[in-house]
Structures are given as C-alpha cells and as structure tokens.
Specification:
Chains A, B: This is Dipeptidyl-peptidase. By secondary structure, chain A is of the alpha+beta class. Chain A contains 26 helices and 20 strands. In chain A, the strands form three sheets. In chain A, strands 1, 2, 3, 4, 5, 6, 7, 8, 9, 10 and 11 form an eleven-stranded antiparallel beta sheet that branches. The longest helix of chain A is centred in the C-terminal third of the chain and has 45 residues.
Amino acid sequence: MPRFNPLSLLTLGIALSLPAHADEGMWLPAQMPELAKPLRNAGFKGRPAALADLTAAPLSAVVRVGGGTGSFVSDAGLLLTNHHVAYGVIQYNSKPDNNLIDNGFIAADRAAELPANPDYRVLVTVGFDKVTDTVLGAATGKRGREYFDAVDRASKAIIAECEQEAGMRCSVANMYYGTDFYRIKQLELRDVRLVYAPPRAIGNYGDEIDNFMWPRHTGDFTLLRAYVGPDGKPAAYSPDNVPYRAPAHLRLAGDGPKAGDFAMLAGYPGVTYRHRTAAEFDEQVNWTLPQRVAVFDQLIGVIESAGAADAEARTRYAAQLQSLKNGSKRAAGELEGLRRSHAVQVRAEDERGMLETAAAAKERAGIDALAAALAEGSAVRERELLLGLFGSQTQLMRTAITLERLRLESAKPDAERESGYQARDHALIEGILKQVQRRYAPAVEKQLLTVLLARYQQLPDAQRLPEFDVAFGRTPAALKKSLDALYAGTTLGDEAARLSRFAAAREGRPLAADPLIDLAIRLVPAQLRLEQERKTRDGEQLRLRPAYMRALFAWRQQQGRALYPDANGTLRISYGKVDGFSPRDGVIYTPVTTVDGIVEKNTGAVPFDAPRPLLDAIANGDFAGTADPALKTQTVNFLTNLDTTGGNSGSPVLNARGELIGLNFDSNWEAVSASWMFDPRYKRAVHVDLRYMRWLMAKVYPAPHLLQEMQAD
Amino acid sequence: MPRFNPLSLLTLGIALSLPAHADEGMWLPAQMPELAKPLRNAGFKGRPAALADLTAAPLSAVVRVGGGTGSFVSDAGLLLTNHHVAYGVIQYNSKPDNNLIDNGFIAADRAAELPANPDYRVLVTVGFDKVTDTVLGAATGKRGREYFDAVDRASKAIIAECEQEAGMRCSVANMYYGTDFYRIKQLELRDVRLVYAPPRAIGNYGDEIDNFMWPRHTGDFTLLRAYVGPDGKPAAYSPDNVPYRAPAHLRLAGDGPKAGDFAMLAGYPGVTYRHRTAAEFDEQVNWTLPQRVAVFDQLIGVIESAGAADAEARTRYAAQLQSLKNGSKRAAGELEGLRRSHAVQVRAEDERGMLETAAAAKERAGIDALAAALAEGSAVRERELLLGLFGSQTQLMRTAITLERLRLESAKPDAERESGYQARDHALIEGILKQVQRRYAPAVEKQLLTVLLARYQQLPDAQRLPEFDVAFGRTPAALKKSLDALYAGTTLGDEAARLSRFAAAREGRPLAADPLIDLAIRLVPAQLRLEQERKTRDGEQLRLRPAYMRALFAWRQQQGRALYPDANGTLRISYGKVDGFSPRDGVIYTPVTTVDGIVEKNTGAVPFDAPRPLLDAIANGDFAGTADPALKTQTVNFLTNLDTTGGNSGSPVLNARGELIGLNFDSNWEAVSASWMFDPRYKRAVHVDLRYMRWLMAKVYPAPHLLQEMQAD
C-alpha cells in the first residue's frame, strides 16, 4: 500500500523539531514520528511511528461519518460518534408512536439494529498518495483562471480514474495552500445502522443555550454499526449484509481523564486560516468581521421592527432572524477573541520576521504578487459582501435570479452546467421555490433590499456595476421608485407563477415576463462576469500562495518550530493535555464536570429536562466502576487544550497509552476565534468523558452486550 | 458608662462555646469574649475582650451612616463608607456644570469639603443598656393587641426620656424576638461633608448588571467627614463647625487580603429570619416565595402584553415592570438557594432535635401557642398578599384608598394618627398624587386588578371580606362589570380631581363624590379591621416567641453552639476568612479580582465605561506599593465568607491584627437566600480591596493629603 511521504517538508529540506507553541497543531499523521520528542515530553507512552500511517492501525480506526468523525470500537464494525453527528439517522428511524430522538434507542441484538437513511455514509481511508506533480503539471506556466482550470481538470481526472474501482470514493486534497496535492481513496460504506442512542435530553442536554458554553453536561454520543455485503465489499442495505470487519478499532480506557493528563485526538477538522497573510488577518479583524456585524445588525433591525408591528412577518422571518443573530453573535465573538489575542499585531510581527529570512528574499516576487492578488480581492470586498446578501437574504429576488440562471445553465449539456444547476439539483431548487411563501413578506423584503442597495449605492465607481446602476438608480429616491415598481408588479409571490417558470427554466425555455424576471435577465450577466473574476483571483492565489508557504516553512525552521497545513477536511492529529482555564478575571473553569451539574441545571423544561431515570440514578449514586477516584462522583464532560475546529465532532480522544477516554463534541465560546489564531490561554476542546457513557450503558439505559463488545479484546 | 451584659444568655444559664458552623454568626459585641477560642483558631491576633463594648474603641469607630455603615479612619472625623451609601450626598452637591456623580470629587482642603443634604446623619453609639424589665413590665399578663401596645408604649416612653438629652437619638432594640430589649443611645451628627468620591464609572462600575454578580470590579467607596459645633456638640452645618474627634478610628493595613486570611467585619445588618420556626421555613419555601413569583409573573405578563401594543403604556409602566421583575427574580433566586440548601429539611430536623430537649418540654405550652398564632396568620396569607398588591400595584385605586384613609386619620389629633398619615407625611402624599398621571393607563390598571381580584374571588369564604364581595361580586362577570363601571365613571385620572380631594382629606373634610372614592369609603373599614387583626397577631408572636427562643438556646447549648440574635439593625460582628467558592459544577470563583477585569469588562458604554485616566493608569502598570505580591498586579475587590445582610453596606473589613483591609459593599447572587439560611458553600460577602482605594488616591485621582491623614498615627 502506498505510504504517505512528507515530501513537501523533505523537498524543502526542513527538519521538524519541537514546536514553540506546544499545544497548537493539527498535525498530519506523517509528521508524528518527527514529533516524537515533544510527544514524549507531553507524556505520550506509545510509539509515535505507529501514528504515521492513516491507512493502518490505529488511525485506520478513525473514519469520516456524516459530517464529522467517528471511530471503530469493536472488531465487528461498531462505531462511536456524536449524537449530533448521528442525529439524522435517529430522526430517520423515529415514528409517530416511537420518537427515538426523545426516547433514545437500544438495539437488543444485531437484528434489531435500524438502517440509516440511504445517503448516510462511513468513509474508511485506504489510500493517501502524493499527486502534486500530476496536478500541477498542466498548470505550470499558466496564470489566473487558466491555472485554476488546469488544477481543477487534473484533479477531476485523478478522481474519475480512482473511482473506477467499485466501492471507492476519491478526492484530491490541497495541502499548504496549493503547495502539495494528495489523492485520498476511501472505502464508502453504505449500510450503516443505529445501535444505541441516549434520549435527546441526555445526548443534547442544554442544546443551543449550552452550545459553546462551558461547563457542559451533555452525553453527546451514539453508537452505529457499519455493514458490508457477504463478500466483504461495500453494499447498500440488505438483511443479508454482515458487520464490517474494521482494519483497526480503539479500546476503551478503564480509567478517565484528570487535570494535567496527556490527551490526543484524531479527526477531520474542516477549515482554518492560521497561515493566511498578515494583510488577511488585518482585513478579517478590521474590516470583514466588524462589517459583517454592522450589516447583519442593520438587517436584524429591519426584521425586528417589522415583526414588532406584524405578527405574521414575525413568524415568517423567525428563522432568518435567528440565523442573522447567530451570524452576528458569532462574528462579534470571533472579533472579540482576535482582539483579545492581539492577532493582527502577533501575525504582523511574525510575518515581518519571515520576510527578513533569506528564503523570503528568494520568494519575494511570488510573495509580492500574492499581496497584489489579495489586494485585488480586497478592492471589491464590500460589493462581494453586499451582493452575497442580496441573494441570500431575499426570497423573490433570489427566486428570479435562480430561475434565470437555471434557464441559462439548462441550455448546456448537464455535465457542463455550473454546480448547483444540474439535473440532480432540480428537486432541491423546486423545494426552495415552494418554501418562499412561508418565509416572505413583501414589505420586509423591500426594506432588506433598501438597506443593502443603499449601501451599494455608496460604493466608489470602480466597485459598482452598470447593470445594477441602471436597475436601481444612483439615489435613494430612484431606489425606492424602482423597488416599489418591482414589488407592485411581480407575481412571483404566487407559487404557481414560480413553478410554471421553473418548468420552463429547467428545460432552458424562455421565462414568462414579470418585473423581477426581467430584472434578473439584466442582472445575471453581471453575476456571471463577477464569477469569472472570482475564479481568476482564486487561480492567482492558488498559484502564488506556495511561495509564501515556502518562506513560512523556512521561517518556522529558523524558529525551531514545525508547520502543519491549515485544516482542509483531512485526517489530523492533535496532542496536549486535560486542562481548565480562566475565561475572565476572577473565574476559573475546572476541566472535568460531574453529574451534580446536570441536577443544578435541570429545570424540567427543554433543553434542561434530564430524564427521570437519569435523575433517579444520580440520586441513587451508584457510580461503582465509573466514578472519578478523586472527585468521588460520576464525571460527565471534560476539557483539553487540543487543537480542533468544525469537523472534529466525534473525534476520539485518547490517553497516553492510546486508549479511548473521550469523544470530542464542542468548543468553548472563548475559542471561537481559533480558526484564525490559536491562543493557548483560551483554546479548549469539549469532550464526553467516556466513563459517563459507560455508566449510562451500565446503570441507566443498560446495554451490557454492547459494553461487553467494546471491552472485549 | 453602663456596659452591655449578655444577660439573656446568663439568665438562661447557657455557656457560649465554639459554634458548629464556624463562619455563621452576626455576633453581638458582648459575645466576643466568649468566642475567644474559635476567634484565635480562626487566626485573630487581637484581644477578643477589646471587642466586647460597642461604645468603646475600636467598635466605637463603627457608626451608622445614611442607610448603611461607616467607620472613622482618622482622628479628625474622616469617615469611610460606600459610594452607594453616600450617593445622595454626592448627588446633592452636583451642579449642571459639574456633575460630581460623573466626575467624582476631591476636596483640596477642609475648606473645600461640601456639606451633605441637611437630613443626612451619622450616628455614633454612646449607650447600650438592657431595658427588658421596663419594657415587659407593663406587658406581663396581657395578650395579643394589648401586649403589643404595652411594649410599644413602654418603648416610646424610654425613647422620649432618652432624647431629653440634646444631640441624642435613641431607640429600643428587640433581641431574640422579644426575649430582651436594649436602649440604644446615639450621638446624632448633623454636619457631614463630602471629602472624596471616585467617578461613578469607578464607584458604581457595572451598576445593576454586576450587582450581586461576582466577579466584581467596583471602587464602591467614598470619604466623608463629620463636623460638630465649636463646643464639640452635634450641630447643623455651619462654617464655624470643627471636625468631630471620633472616640476611635481604624487604621489602614499596609498589605491586603489573600485566600485563607482571617477577616472580620462590624456593621449594622438589617433583618434575618434564621431563627424562625420550621413551619415558617416551610411556608417561605413552599408558599410565600413560589406564590410571589407566580403572582408577580402574572402581573408582569399583563404589563408586557399591554406594552407590546401600546408604546405609551410601555413608558408609563416601565418602572413598575422593572420593580416586579426584580421582585420576581429576587424571590426566584431566594427560592432556588433555599431549595439547594435543603433549608426546609435542615431546619425541620434541627427543630425536631430541639423539641426533644428538656428545655423544650418546659416551654411546650408557649411553643404550641406560638405555632397556633403563626397558623392564624397563615390562614389569611393569600388574602394578605393579594390585598397588599391591590394597593401597591395600582394608581387610581390606591389614590382613592389613600385619600379616604387620610380623611379618617386627619380627624384625629396629629400624634394619634397612623404613621404615614401625619402632617409630616402630607408633602410625600401630595407628591405621589401628582405622579399618578405618569404611571397610569386605565386599561392596564383594570387588567392588573382583574388578575388580583380574580384570585381573590377564588379564596375560601373565611378569607374573603364582605365589603370586597359586595364591591366586586363573586364571579368574573360581576368583577368585570364592576371594574368597567368604576373606571368609566372615575375622574381621579385628572390631577385637579385628586388634589382638590387631597385638600379636603388633609383637613378631615368629606370628599367630593366619585365612583372610586365611594368604593374606598366602603373598603377602608375592612382595611382598618385587618390592621387590628394584624397587630393582635404580632402581639401574640412577640409574647410567645421567647418561649421558642429559650428552647433553642438550650438546644444550641447541648450542641455546643453559641446563638446570635437574628439581625435587627444593631451592631454585629462577623469573623471568618478570605475565600472563593464554586457557584456551580465546573466553575470556581477566585476570591480576589484585579484591574485586568476592569479592562475585560470595559465597553466604553455605561455601566462599563471606565474613565480614561483609570484605563491609562492600568495600562501604565505603576502599582508600586499597592500591588498584590503574588498576583503581581493591582487588586480591586475580594470575597470573604463573612456573615452579612442588607445594612452591612460600608462595613469595615479587618485583618487578623484589626487593621482595615476592605470595605463591604455587596453580596453574591448565590447568597440571596442567606437571610433565612447560612449555607457555608455559597454565602460570601463582596468587599473593596482597600489597596485599590489607596492606588486610586495615590496614582489615578490623587489626594495625597487624605492618604497621609489616614496613614498618620
């Protein structure tokens, strides 16, 4: 089997050594042997070399499942992940007379295990191979859009060839921002079954109120099982299928975490921006986040005023309001965190140091060209933000633009259509068109557009588009007149009017006249032009970032620090320790919570409505075999300083001996800015203490056969 | 000078000894010598005997000021208390062009000190004498209302005689619920001046948001100075007055508090209920508090629905809504705390133990009679709650009842009128009548009355009053008809209509007809009857509680615990230590906060708008002489487990050597139930660290002459 080879590092002649920030790092498995010394210093008792191959034990036990991570915990395909990662499976199996979300589920035996929704997948990595030369071969010498397209074409060809093998799902991962490319080959297990789920009031205790808010008290775990055909190959659900024999599985630890203990975690973190340039950090903190908060808050104000006077508008815009509020809160939290960490200054000083190295001098032309390419994007950032919201925050306007775009794309062969407008997307588009009615009030949409377009009208000439200027004028009065006329005349508020045009659009036929459709016909060409410009800029960044990364490698080497690629949905390892923190002056968060907190939070009302059997078991106090020896009670969740981000949900947390002690499921609010900067004072990850799972499965909602299966050798 | 003699204890033959709950206790100064051993064990380095006399040094340095406590900190009458205790004085001296609340104030010299509002007082205790025999002499053999009146008459006679001496203010304090009575003689200093106040954004940093919420970061202190006439006697303000030579003053410590340090505090706690009966605990937890929350929440619902549809109603009821919300939150917090502490069970078990003692057997008749008297009150508790709110939560209804009551009282000689309706109260009543307009909307008042009277209509016959049944009927329909007619017909919504009737009422003349006035004429006799019944019940409790207290003394003796009287506004001492706590699972509050927290909380907007000079000084980091040696930064506030309640504001906090280290100003939210039960896990007091005051006065808003005065020997 081809082995991962950390060529990007060796090629550059860089020796890995102790990172200065010992707890930061989403390491590639291949980097682990080089981290042997810091790993041992941190307390790891295993062989670092055994962590190098993500296609062999123990890492091959760690798989993609749903939108997150999972790990095999028996030799018969038993799979541990989060309740929220398996939520769709539980929901899919709920019936009016037996709501498994509320009630939880225990399969008494394998025959009782319930098939997941047919599109639910478990992906087991079986190949991880460097394909940089193949991917970049055709791109060399090209620029901008051509560079982008060459990389895209080469990647698609690699994937197509790889997927010739039955049962395989393949992808190409881009490491260090276009420096290296890897072909990932994954076994696609399609028969996944629900084995054990706690009731929602355990698996999602605290819900949105506690989300991000330490201390947590949530039993966010579920057990699934992967099945394959009798021939051992991936297969759709069939009663004849047999449990998948995983190439490796993790073993439950007999004890649990305590402050200071070594901990490590493997999973599929989604995206981070840690190695972006100082200019990008500055833009994020001083423009993007404050601007997002300001525009979102203005839109929130429009919806709230409308809702105060009109109960129907309040109902129709409830979801959009919630989403804008979450977006604003999240952006404000990220901004607060980045400011608290002085992220702009820290990154700027770091980059200044880098630019003084000899390596940076050699790369100077590329680095300067990258800065120029980024500046081109920044020059149109306000327009990009406003036009994005112009589509995403409206219903009728988006309908008109979607229909016209669909008409244009449908004139092409399906394979050449823009993703999102292919035949496979038609059902989704139709569903969205049908929902418009329930999410729309004409007066509110006009006010939202007035906010966005009034801002747009203030943009400098270079950012504005002639098509928009003609359509909406250059003054508030012209804007009002134009919107009044559009919304007085459009019939797209009627479902039939939308669906009849959808029927035409999907066949590439002309759309019946309507003021908003006529507008869309004039605006979509501008939209297409902007898409081209965006791909050109993306291509230039893809071409130029490797120069910056080479300089950064050299700088980190000079500092004696290793460099991990920013997260990109590929398997990473993080190591560190069980650790509390001080969120603010006068307050300390301890790293391990107990069942006392469940009782304290319990109100009897959702989301703090712990089930009676749980409350009784806590009151009864039989924690024999799972109690923490020092706390002398049952623990629930714990904190580590491990480096995680979205996608790490369900990641197994291991102790110094590589045994399973926890299940990652959340971060703390203070770490919401960690996608840009890891601040060791505040970055923590939140895990289910598996002693809590063992206790629940032993004493509260018993499943002794599953405990036995997990604890068997 | 007559000395306090803990006769109530000696009479009962009880030896004081180590209390089982070492940190609980609002001790009488006379109890301190008996607490010498536990005091020493806790770390106290001084002479416990020196704390026995509240009319001699050092306790004579601790005085009543405004509604709280203060202490002399120089031999020239300099007085340290809270910013919030001196708030009225600062406000009184603010001018449109110099708002001292916003700007703070530093008197450059004594001539620049600003006179307080003329009714502001400092009271220095000069006598504390047992008068039990005199007070109870005339009451012996009486019961109910007669017992109450006899105690009241005897107390008033003692006060009148005591106040014959010029410059004295006297009172009679009731200890151990009618077991003992003391005459308190206090020098009434009437010329008080403002010397130093920090800006509001320091003295009240965090305001209502941080109130009760540890961690705190508030510089809640102010310096005043007491003056007397050139003859050394109390006098009204005069430029010829001279600083008062206090009989004692406290000295500032050179260092500050750290976790575990001994701490003690003296002050005037207002009221606690710790020695109430188990039945009263049960009623508080299982009836009073839940009922208060339920009724308040229903009234809140009425006002919020009205406000959602009517902006004017929203404005007019804003203050009432805020007050109901605070009341509901406070009651809910107290309930939560008492439940968390299992207060009902703990007190019930304790009482069961007591009832098994020989002493309780001797007192059995009295204890049983007390239980019966309390049950009489409980039998009408719902009516009492509803009729209280009937007056306090309405404007026109209250106006009518006040006017009719005033008319009746004004027919008597002034001295015989019920307190609140005497000539001295007329200005206040007139002010309230003038404010009605701004706090009233007829539709809302009708709905509030509907809520209260609909509950009233559900009461059993024995609780209802014929006058109310006649006025409002027995059915919802009758109630609606009656309220509709009353509010359609009344003219009391007009200020002139209210004030013309006020002019008549204050002279005892008949009031011009009006539907609500006519109603009040029918209801006030019922109100007067209820008042009589209440005084009768109060008299019975006053007569009977001493039996219960004697049994409790005996039980505590058997347990080896001392017993302090419940708080009653007299000087008490508490001792314990500097101590953080865990408010809930997973969270620890550290006992000392630092200036870091000021910066963290600062938003630039009220109430988190730290002044620029403070922020600059923090950034500058010159904490020489006041920094905490371990934290290596400037501290701000600290926590102790000292036993406090309302009235302890401004209490000096002393270290083991009796030096001043802090100034009490707040409690933590988790301790809101401590007026009923001291739970050592949660009961904390919040203090200004005087190192923060010293730093502010040295480096931020300098007043070196005052620091020198406080630090002089």
